[in-house]
What does this fold into?
Amino acid sequence: MGRGTTIANEIERLIARLDGARVCDDCITDQLNLSVRSQANVVTRALGTERDYDREKEACALCARTKTVIRRAG
It folds into this structure.
């Protein structure tokens, strides 16, 4: 993903700050004050295909609900 102040960059930075903790799209939306959840979902689906990220169904580190979450791998 490119550099700049885009929603995608903000999401990547949030995931990096969480240092491997899993986070769901709803919590990403809340943490970044996004207007709709689909903004987070589009980005996390794309990131989930990259080898630096894992996207799976697990408990979210922020809300503790079992959902599709993303984390920075390794």
Notes: The mean pLDDT is 93. Residues 7-17 form the longest helix (11 residues).
